[in-house]
């Protein structure tokens, strides 16, 4: 776990530096907008660390994951004087945010006591690992990975809007095509989350009654989109932000620019995150190893899963 964490933090430092160094420097307006974004980032990250440390609920970043890209991109839109492309990007991020925030909310992620709410089950598993038995190690992990790394990532995958700002290129059919594709992925993500929500809700209802049918004894969602991919919601999430990056490609004409950093790091994070989820699921559910062998992680590259 430590090695994965150190590697992710290392990439957070190195990848932005390399990509930024060999790209076109930001103009004055972009720098002004970036300074505002960094002020917001610093305040929210500090609050995230403080609140999670006081309450021992380490899902504070999870609560903000679907929210913070909205103010980030709308701040950029404000500085751009609502350029059509940036406005389109901000509207897409808002649609994405509403859907994902709703999904997190219905699972108990929020409470009127904002510092409470359901904690991601994986944090308790990670905290129980031998390497985190000493509290100071967990404090460091919370500061650098849970708080700083993840909040940095949220900012970074929002920054293609900053790179696209100030372009003289008008909206084109490619912008609209990207928008349609992102909306399609949001729909796919909704379907995947709904299928998982329905399965888990019914599973726990049956567990309470003491009468669980064979379908729900499997323990994990394995039909619908989940029969073809082990993480269709994660796949759609990554696809959304990879496509979001391509708005900056259209605006600048550069296939590779520094704002690709967020999408690259997001893919790395989801690989690490899904590894942890699957490690836990394989210990809980006997059929999960069979599921791993038969179904692709993020792409439908293998056959359909059958119990």
Task: Tell me how many strands there are.
Answer: 0
Kindly give the count of domains.
1
Q: Averaged pLDDT, please?
A: 88
Order of helices and strands, N to C? HHHHHHHHHHHHH
Molecular structure report:
The protein has 307 residues and is mainly alpha-helical. The chain has helices at residues 2-21, 28-55, 60-65, 69-79, 84-106, 121-127, 135-156, 160-164, 173-209, 214-217, 232-252, 261-284, 288-294. The protein contains 13 helices and no strands. Helix 1 runs parallel beside helix 7 (135-156) and helix 4 runs antiparallel to helix 5. It starts with a helix and ends in a 13-residue tail after the last helix.
What labels describe this entry?
13 helices; 307 residues; globular; mainly alpha
Give the secondary structure arrangement, pairings included.
Blueprint: H1 2-21, H2 28-55, H3 60-65, H4 69-79, H5 84-106, H6 121-127, H7 135-156, H8 160-164, H9 173-209, H10 214-217, H11 232-252, H12 261-284, H13 288-294
Give a brief rundown of this model.
By secondary structure, the protein is mainly α.
């Amino acid at each position: 776990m430590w090695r994965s964490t150190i590697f992710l933090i290392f990439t957070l430092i190195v990848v932005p530096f390399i990509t930024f160094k060999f790209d076109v420097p930001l103009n004055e307006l972009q720098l002004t907008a970036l300074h505002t974004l960094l002020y917001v980032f610093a305040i929210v990250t500090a609050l995230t660390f403080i609140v999670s440390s006081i309450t021992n609920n380490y899902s504070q970043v999870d609560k903000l994951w679907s929210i913070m890209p909205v103010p980030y991109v709308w701040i950029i839109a404000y500085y751009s004087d609502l350029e059509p492309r940036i406005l389109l990007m901000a509207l897409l991020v808002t649609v994405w945010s509403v859907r994902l925030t709703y999904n997190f909310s219905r699972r108990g992620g929020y409470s009127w006591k904002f510092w409470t709410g359901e904690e991601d089950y994986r944090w308790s598993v990670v905290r129980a690992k031998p390497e985190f038995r000493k509290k100071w190690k967990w404090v460091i992990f919370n500061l650098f990975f849970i708080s700083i790394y993840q909040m940095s990532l949220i900012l970074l995958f929002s920054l293609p809007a900053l790179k696209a700002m100030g372009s003289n290129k008008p909206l084109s059919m490619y912008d609209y095509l990207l928008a349609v594709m992102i909306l399609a992925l949001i729909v796919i993500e909704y379907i995947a989350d709904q299928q998982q929500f329905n399965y888990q809700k019914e599973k726990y209802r049956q567990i309470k009654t003491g009468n669980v049918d064979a379908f729900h004894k499997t323990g994990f969602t394995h039909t619908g989109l989940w029969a073809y991919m082990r993480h269709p919601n994660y796949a759609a999430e990554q696809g959304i932000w990879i496509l979001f990056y391509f708005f900056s490609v259209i605006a600048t004409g550069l296939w590779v620019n520094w704002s690709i950093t967020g999408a690259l790091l997001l893919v790395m994070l989801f690989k690490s995150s899904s590894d942890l989820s699957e490690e836990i699921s394989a210990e809980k559910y006997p059929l999960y190893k069979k599921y791993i062998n038969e179904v692709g992680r993020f792409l439908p590259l293998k056959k359909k899963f059958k119990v």
